[in-house]
């Protein structure tokens, strides 16, 4: 209930301002940014997180600065600003090292995510393997799931399909047990991998699971990951115009548009599909896609996929 959360947080900020509670304002502003991120308002989320970072810097609280930089990195990645995301999280890691803090999956996983989306896959594989060991040692189940998902992402684009499926299934099982909001991530990525293996039926089944999870949790992140593979599967079925529409919607998200990983697993192929249409037909389909509502599209995808 994001609207209710926003109302409560804004009330909290106002009370803390009356109390001249700068630290409290900074903490509450982090949460305001996180809610904005979950709603897909990535620029607004970045603004909140930078505001919070500035307040912590004014207070001279380096530990909180480090935490905020890690959160900002995650937001920047979702906005498609992967270089800035990596820079922010590396600053967070450096602060943690200066303060004598132990390595932390909350910073190591965001660094891996940015690295993979920048196209540094071998480096990402090494990082994800280290993250998995760290998360298991500190027994952080959710971050174990993230590390496995990143391992699957990197293994897939490196051509290790069997390894990718193994990691993604294990990550999916962890998220399912936790009833985690990000269960759709490994499910959606599995859809890409299985399609690459040539099993379109199973790929659609995985996509159905991912879309269902995204709708249930109202997770914009999940739907972002589902859109390009939905476009690819539409192409496989001969529905090229629909594929270009879905791709037009997907390209509205910087996380897809600016990602080398998405380029390698989907966007290059979808660009070729779009180019195969007469220019005026492709342009019209892309324009229709840009006007689509994300959640209405997710519901339509689910109806369409279930009907097949």
The run of helices and strands is HHHHHHHHHHHHHHHHH
Unreliable spans: none
Biggest β-sheet description: none
Mean pLDDT equals 95
- The tally of beta strands, per DSSP, is 0
Task: Supply the helix-strand structural class.
Answer: mainly alpha
Tell me the span between the first and last alpha carbons.
32 Å
User: Multimeric state of these chains?
Assistant: single chain
Shape: globular
Task: Report the total helices.
Answer: 17
| CA-atom Rg in angstroms | 20 Å
Give the helix level as a range of percent: over 70%
Strand content: under 5%
What does this entry look like structurally?
By secondary structure, the chain is mainly alpha-helical. The chain has helices at residues 2-18, 22-38, 42-59, 62-78, 82-98, 105-117, 121-138, 141-157, 161-178, 184-196, 200-217, 220-236, 240-250, 254-257, 260-275, 279-290, 294-306. Helix 3 packs antiparallel against helix 4 and helix 4 packs antiparallel against helix 5 (82-98). The protein is globular and about 60 Å long. The mean pLDDT is 95.
């Amino acid at each position: 209930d994001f609207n209710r959360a926003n109302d409560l947080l804004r009330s909290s900020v106002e009370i803390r301002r009356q109390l001249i509670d700068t630290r409290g304002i900074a903490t509450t502003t982090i949460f305001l940014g996180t809610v904005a991120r979950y709603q897909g308002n990535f620029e607004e989320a970045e603004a909140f997180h930078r505001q919070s970072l500035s307040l912590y810097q004014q207070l001279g609280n380096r530990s909180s600065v480090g935490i905020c930089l890690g959160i900002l990195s995650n937001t920047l990645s979702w906005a498609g600003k992967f270089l800035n995301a990596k820079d922010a999280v590396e600053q967070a890691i450096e602060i943690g090292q200066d303060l004598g803090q132990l390595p932390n999956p909350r910073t190591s996983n965001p660094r891996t995510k940015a690295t993979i989306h920048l196209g540094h896959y071998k480096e990402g594989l090494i990082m994800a393997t280290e993250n998995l060991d760290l998360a298991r040692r500190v027994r952080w189940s959710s971050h174990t799931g993230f590390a496995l998902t990143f391992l699957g992402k990197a293994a897939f684009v490196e051509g290790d399909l069997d390894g990718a499926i193994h990691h993604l299934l294990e990550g999916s099982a962890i998220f399912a047990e936790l009833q985690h909001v990000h269960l759709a991530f490994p499910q959606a990525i599995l859809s890409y991998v299985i399609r690459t293996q040539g099993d379109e039926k199973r790929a659609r089944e995985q996509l159905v699971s991912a879309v269902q999870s995204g709708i249930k949790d109202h997770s914009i992140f999940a739907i972002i990951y589902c859109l390009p593979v939905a476009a690819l599967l539409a192409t496989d079925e001969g529905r090229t115009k629909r594929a270009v529409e879905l791709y037009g919607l997907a390209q509205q998200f910087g996380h897809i548009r600016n990602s080398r990983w998405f380029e390698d697993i989907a966007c290059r192929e979808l660009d070729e599909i779009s180019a195969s249409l007469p220019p005026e037909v492709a342009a019209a389909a892309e324009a229709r896609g840009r006007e689509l509502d994300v959640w209405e599209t997710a519901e339509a995808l689910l109806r369409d996929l279930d009907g097949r």
